[in-house]
Write a structure and sequence with these properties.
Elements (H helix, E strand, L loop, with lengths): L6 H8 L10 H17 L14 H10 E2 L9 H8 L5 E6 L2 E2 L12 E5 L5 H4 L17 H9 L4 E5 L7 E8 L6 E4 L2 E6 L4 E10 L4 E11 L4 E9 L4 E11 L4 E8 L4 E10 L5 E8 L6 E10 L5 E10 L4 E10 L6 E11 L5 E10 L4 E10 L3 H9 L4 H17 L5 H14 L9
Parallel strand pairs: 1-7, 2-6, 5-8, 6-9, 7-10, 8-10, 9-11, 10-12, 11-13, 12-14, 13-15, 14-16, 15-17, 16-18, 17-19, 18-20, 19-21
Antiparallel strand pairs: 2-3, 4-5
């Protein structure tokens, strides 16, 4: 399939109001290069190996009818607190891709710059928007990244210097669908840490009932010796199709710790593409997905070890109920002429129904000799003996099962060092396992 087949729909998504020459330099460059790359690379297809588990036909069907969104107006900050959590830190809110000033809360902090790109002067933003290229961090071209580059109307910019004493930032993306249209929403977030800097960034994707296509790109650049904790929560409306991309380049001695939790959407794919570019750099990728009836939640991880004495850890868990489907692909690449690589990978899944389905694919591509690489994957049901033990202590069966599920998932949640986020995630996970209907108002 080529872009030409969907030319009119893509034109509608990438259209702008007014003259393209009036756009800021950074946005014009991203749009032009995104359009060119999209025309060359096309949209993903099922035969593309990284998209093996994703029904790309659903994506192209949505694009045929999707339109660029309009601003949905200001949201009640209290409603954002409930849906995304009040983490007690600076917060930047975007609604349908547009900056919501009223729902945002920015507290000045030395050494920390947090802003919507639309509020940054053109001359100031040029050095912070990152390359407009639609390639991923490791140079692998992706059509959805190109589409985001071409269609994004705004974005979040976070820059942290070593002088920052405390840097915790919450970026919230809200999808407010239209009853008669399918909006294409294109969040874009740029995170940059200077040498020796430390920060925590939480990125939440929430939404209301109704059809929407969300295509998000987050770019992370960690300079030498910096440390970032990045947590990502996807809990959008059940009629949403979510495409999430996180690209990270990690410098020498720098460390990235991430947690990705997927609860919402009808169809969701979250992809991490991480390059360990400097000696003694490291990354930990933790994740949890809980698909239920009619949901397919997919995670795809690529970690490229391109330097010496680098370390990566992947720990993902799935709890699949009803006729839901959870998919995991973990790809580790160890480049030639590197030494001292350590990479561990695990994916464990619990099926709560005979109709539930889990796909797991560990994938090691080792092109060097001095390595320590392991992987493990399991798919099974709740331990009947554990359920029986709890029942023998007077605990009802339903409660016993929920306790075991909470214990299984809790190993991922407990690894988050931000207490308000842990509490919010536990609440969202509990509510996600009950029938709910979220409406705006």
């Amino acid at each position: 399939m080529t872009v030409v087949e969907h030319g009119s729909s893509l034109d509608a998504l990438t259209a702008i109001d007014g003259d393209a020459d009036s756009l800021p330099t950074w946005r014009r460059a991203r749009r032009e290069q995104g359009l060119a790359a999209l025309a060359e690379a096309g949209l993903p297809q099922r035969r593309d190996e990284p998209w093996h588990y994703f029904p790309t036909a659903k994506l192209t069907d949505l694009l045929d009818g999707a339109v660029a969104p309009r601003s949905a107006g200001a949201l009640d900050p209290g409603q954002v607190d409930i849906m995304a959590g009040d983490l007690g830190c600076s917060r930047l809110v975007f609604v349908n891709g547009f900056h919501d000033v009223g729902a945002s809360r920015l507290s000045p902090s030395d050494g920390v710059t947090v802003s919507a790109l639309s509020a940054v002067a053109d001359s100031d933003s040029a050095d912070h928007t990152g390359p407009p290229s639609p390639s991923t961090a490791s140079g692998r071209t992706d059509g959805t990244v190109a589409l985001n580059a071409a269609a994004a109307v705004d974005g979040a910019m976070i820059s942290v210097s070593a002088e920052a004493t405390e840097a915790t930032i919450h970026v919230v993306h809200v999808a407010v669908p239209d009853a008669d249209k399918t909006y294409g929403i294109f969040p874009h977030t740029l995170i940059s840490l200077a040498p020796g800097a430390t920060a925590t960034v939480v990125e939440s994707f929430i939404g209301f009932r109704g059809p929407a296509l969300v295509d998000s790109v987050t770019t992370i650049d960690l300079a030498e010796g910096s440390r970032l904790a990045y947590h990502r929560l996807q809990s959008e409306g059940r009629s949403t199709v979510h495409l999430g991309r996180v690209d990270a380049v990690i410098g020498a001695g720098a460390d990235l710790t991430t947690t990705s939790v997927s609860l919402g959407a009808e169809l969701s794919r979250t992809a991490f593409d991480v390059t360990l570019a400097g000696d003694e750099s490291s990354v930990t990728l933790d994740g949890l997905y809980l698909p239920r009836s009619g949901q397919h939640l997919d995670h795809t991880l690529t970690v490229q070890h391109s330097a010496n004495r680098t370390t990566s850890e992947q720990r993902f868990k799935g709890v699949v109920d009803d006729d839901g489907r959870g998919s995991f692909t973990g790809h580790v690449i160890v480049d030639p002429d590197t030494a001292g690589t350590t990479a561990h990978q695990s994916n464990h899944n619990i099926l709560l129904s005979s109709r539930a389905e889990a796909d797991t694919r560990p994938w090691l591509e080792i092109l060097a000799d001095d390595v320590r690489c392991t992987h493990g994957a399991t798919v099974g049901r709740l331990d009947d003996e554990a359920v029986f033990y709890l029942r023998s202590r007077g605990i009802p069966e339903a409660t016993a099962r929920e306790m075991l599920i909470e214990g299984f998932a809790g190993e991922i949640i407990d690894g988050i060092d931000l207490e308000p986020l842990r509490d919010h995630l536990r609440s969202r996970i509990t509510s996600s396992r009950k029938p709910t209907a979220t409406t705006r108002g």
